Amino acid sequence: MSEYQYYEFLAIDRPLTEDEVAELRGISTRATITPISFTNEYNWGNFKGDSEKLMQRYFDAHVYVANWMTAIFMLRLPIEALPEEAAKAMAVPYTLDIEATKTHWIITWSLEESENYDRFGMEDGHGWMARLAPIRDELLRGDLRSLYIGWLAVAAADAEMMDDEETEPLTVSGLGNLTAAQRALAEFLEVDIDFLAAAGMGSPAAPHGELSGKDMDRWIDALPRDEVKTILKQLLEGKGQQAEQSIRNRFAAWQRSLPADTTDTPLRTVGQLRQNAEKTRRIRLEKQKRDRKRREIRRREKREAYLKNLSNNFPKAWESVREPVERGSGRGYDEACRILVDIAEAYTLFATKKQFQTELKAFMADHMRRKALIQRLLKAGIWKD
Fold this sequence. Notes:
The protein is 55% helix and 11% strand. It has helices at residues 18-27, 51-57, 84-90, 117-122, 128-132, 134-140, 145-157, 180-188, 193-200, 213-222, 225-236, 240-257, 270-311, 314-327, 330-350, 353-364, 371-380, and strands at residues 5-10, 32-34, 37-42, 61-66, 70-78, 96-100, 104-111. The protein is elongated and about 100 Å long.
C-alpha cells in the first residue's frame, strides 16, 4: 500500500488576505488554496508546513488523515469561548490536547493507533471537514459534548490509561442525544458504539438552544460604548461575518459566566461506564440477532412465494431456461443454471425431486454437448453424471 496523507484547513472567522494566500503558496505549490481553505494530498513526500502553527496564524479548523492509521481534527477557538477549568478537566494525553495561546485555544482530537485496516485502506480524508466543522460553532455556544467524546475515546479503548475508579471529568448534558457533527466525531475517533450509548445513559437532557430575549437585552444594555462602536465600524467596513462572530463569542462567554442551575447528577466512574457499555453491548447483540431472524423469515417467505408461483406453471418455467442455454455464452449458462436451481427447489417443495430429475434429463437430451453448462449444473448439485 502506497503512502497517503490528506491535509485540509478551513478559515471560518475571517477570510485570508492576498498576502496570507501568497505565504501559504510558498509552503506548497501543489495545494488548492482559496481565501477560506487550504487542501493538499500527498502520495509521496511530506507537508512542509507545521499544522499547529498554521492553525495559530491562519485557520480555525483542520483535518488530517494518513493511511498509516492516523486521523486528526483540530479547532481554534477564541480564548473566552472555553473556561480554563473545563479545558483542564477534559484534556487527555495523546487523544484530546487543549493548548492555550494568548488569544485562542487550539483543540486537537487524535486517533493514532487505529486497527481498522479496511477504513484506512479506503479513507482519503475528503468529506470529514464538512461533517466535523459544525463542532466549532457548538463549542462557541458552550456545548462541551465534543470534548467529552474525546475523553470517552480513551476511557473506552485504554484500560491501562484509565482505571475503573477514575471519574468522568464533568457532568455533560445531552450525551444521549448527540448532534450529527458529534456522531461524526465519535466515528472519526472510532469511539466504541456501546461506550457511546453507555455515556448517554443517565446523562441529563441537553438544554434548549433558543436564545433568551431577556438575556440578550440584559447583555446589550451592559455593553460598553467602545465595544458597540467597534462592532458598528466592522459592519460599515463590510466585515459583517467577523462582527457577528465576535458578538456571538462575547454573548456566549457572558452566558457561561451566569450562575448555573445546580444539579444533583453525580460524576460516574469509568467502571460504571464500562458496566453500562457491557449491558448495552448485550442488548445490541440480542437485537441484531432478533433482526437477523426476522429478516431470514421474511426472506424465506418471499422465496417460498416465488417458488410457489414457479410451481403453478412448470412448463413455462422450463421454457424460460431454453433461451439463455441456446445463447451459448458463459453468462447465458450462468443464468440458465440459476433458473434451474430455482425450478429444482420448487419441485422439492411442491412436487418431488424425482419429477425434477426426469424433466431435467428430458430437457438436457438436446444439450449434452454443452460441457460448460453441465459443469455448472454439477457444481450446483442438480445434475448427476
